[in-house]
Amino acid sequence: MQEEPWANIHLSDAPPEAHFRFDYLGRERVDSPFANGLGEVSAVSFWFSTDYLEQHGPRQTRKLLMALAAPLPFASGNAGLAFSGSLDVAANIRQVRRDCLRYPGLEVLRLSMTSLRIGTRVRGPSWLTFLGAPLLSQLGGAAQLGSRLNTPSTTVQAVEATSAVVTLGDWPATGDSEHDEPLSGYRELARALEPWTLWGEGESILGLEPEAARRWERRFLD
Question: Which stretches of 127-177 are assigned E, i.e. beta strand?
Fold first, then answer.
């Protein structure tokens, strides 16, 4: 990971039933600031099958996620349920397009595309939303953010002076729209993060038409 000028690392369990995956995309080492707060960043993702959550429970899962995040100098990060599998496979992307609005709580991630644009912004709310510098200070700090979030199941925990994690409930939510699963905490956090949220992923990652992309990206706001 320290190789010049950058490193790309991809590790996974054996298919077809992979239980974990690790991806690291290193940004070229150049000393230039982000343009207008946006730009290419180094990014990392950890994928686990839902078996881990079901076997160990949300408390142990959260503990593991916090341990993974602890040594990382993150600007922002998200942890929650997600559609897994390669989005380059036509059958996979068709299924995700069909289901992404039904299950708004599920993440859709294509790390290689997000890391090119996100800079110091955030992708929006998730079960665990990690906020670092400079975003947390722009939100007024952990205490100020916590005072704005009134959903009883939401907690804001300061990790260090410049970072915090927002937890939305005991379990990650799918938000199944056919069963009216409430997402009040997600909606409240989305409003707080809106000015610093990365937009455009509905078209770039999912390939949705502009109106459908807008509906998906603003699923917690409109």
Answer: 128-131, 154-160, 163-168
